[in-house]
Write a structure and sequence with these properties.
The protein is an alpha/beta fold. The chain folds into two domains: 34-118 and 222-336, Periplasmic binding protein-like II (D-Maltodextrin-Binding Protein, domain 2, 3-Layer(aba) Sandwich), CATH 3.40.190; 121-219, 3-Layer(aba) Sandwich (D-Maltodextrin-Binding Protein, domain 2). Helices cover 49% and strands 16% of the residues. It contains 16 helices and ten strands. Strands 2-1-3-10-4 form a five-stranded mixed beta sheet, with helices on both faces. A five-stranded mixed beta sheet has the order 7-6-8-5-9. The termini are far apart. 44% of the residues are buried. Belongs to the bacterial solute-binding protein SsuA/TauA family. Residues 49-259 form the SsuA/THI5-like domain.
Length: 337
């Protein structure tokens, strides 16, 4: 009887050991199966909250992807990284895909998943204004964004919409580098400035300026920032693009159904130098004005609105058909499922 017990106990130990080794091997296999995807974002912004949610909540990993995020700081640098093979997927303004295409290419950049659907900038005044009207900008100094970029084009589009010629009715400054616009305003340059968050809210909290209007609300829906890849990558890695888009869609739906505080907590690790209350304020502002797209489909109306804005700013090289640079087949397939 003792021999049988000894044998049974030994057998049990061996079985446990074998099970543990198998479990470890399975974990290793799972890790090995994660496919690396290089993702470059044009800047680090709370505006891109669903992207960080997809990373932080493990939606990419659940799809078998190991997404490595880098911030390239600028549309030109982001597109260069994509075209040169330095990244697989880029998050950048859709206007960049038009610029590349019209310059001539055998491998165009394709927009396959939309992340934000409005402009993300706000009009900030130096003095507090209780009853703001756009004609108050006439004759004033306005610090705009870089010429040719979406913020600048949307800014001019909105000004013209309100009967203001940005080049005649005000003193327009556009020669200050993006990174230095806020500091220029803080040091006393300009009466009004066009700023992204969280800078706009930080300025308001510190008494350096006052948010008086939203360019996103004024300009309507546009494919402001989208995920894009070269056509060749889309063909060769169709399954990867599908899994990537599915993770983004999950994140978009998560952002749609969760509170401002929950979203702010999810993205906080990516903004460790920003006060949590400011993060909440910014998320709330973008969420309430519908800046976060709730699905990855870039529709034709948005595409046409984008080109109208570019044309109005004198920056559209030529009209590009929606189907030439936009592929919604992957996004539509995911949503239908």
């Amino acid at each position: 009887m003792k021999k049988w017990l000894k044998f049974s106990f030994s057998t049990l130990l061996i079985a446990i050991l074998m099970f543990s080794l198998a479990a470890c091997n399975n974990d290793t296999t799972k890790t090995k199966k994660l496919e690396k995807v290089r993702l470059a974002e044009v800047t680090r912004s709370i505006f891109y909250a669903p992207e960080y949610v997809a990373l932080e909540k493990g939606f990419f990993k659940a799809e078998g992807l190991d997404v490595k995020l880098t911030t390239t700081f600028g549309g030109d640098k982001t597109m260069t990284a994509l075209l040169s093979g330095g990244t697989d997927i880029a998050l950048v303004g859709s206007e960049t895909s038009i610029y590349v295409y019209t310059q001539g290419t055998d491998d165009p950049v394709i927009n396959f998943a939309q992340l934000t659907q409005t402009d993300g900038t706000f009009l900030v005044s130096r003095e507090k204004i209780d009853n703001f009207s756009w004609d108050m900008l006439k004759g004033k100094t306005f610090l705009g964004q870089r010429k040719g970029g979406m913020p600048q084009m949307v800014g001019e589009f909105v000004l013209k919409k309100h009967g203001i010629d940005p080049h005649k009715d005000l003193n327009l400054i556009q020669n200050i580098d993006f990174a230095n616009i806020s500091s220029a305003f803080a040091s006393g340059t300009g009466d009004f400035v066009q700023l992204f968050e969280p800078t706009a809210s930080i300025f308001e909290k510190e008494g350096k300026g006052h948010i008086i209007a939203s360019f996103g609300t004024e300009s309507g829906h546009v494919p402001y920032t989208t995920f894009m890849a070269k056509q060749s990558y889309m063909k060769e890695h169709n399954a990867t693009v599908e899994r990537f888009t599915r993770a983004i869609y999950k994140a978009q739906q998560w952002v749609k159904t969760h509170s401002t505080e929950e979203i702010a907590k999810a993205v906080q690790p990516y903004f460790q130098d920003t006060d949590f209350e400011i993060i909440k304020m910014v998320v709330d502002r973008y969420k309430n004005q519908g800046s976060f797209a709730t699905d990855p489909i870039l529709d034709e109306e948005e595409w046409n609105n984008l080109q109208n804005i570019m044309k109005e700013a004198g920056e559209l090289p030529k009209q590009v058909d929606y189907k030439t640079l936009v592929n919604t087949s992957v996004a539509e397939k995911i949503i239908q499922k």
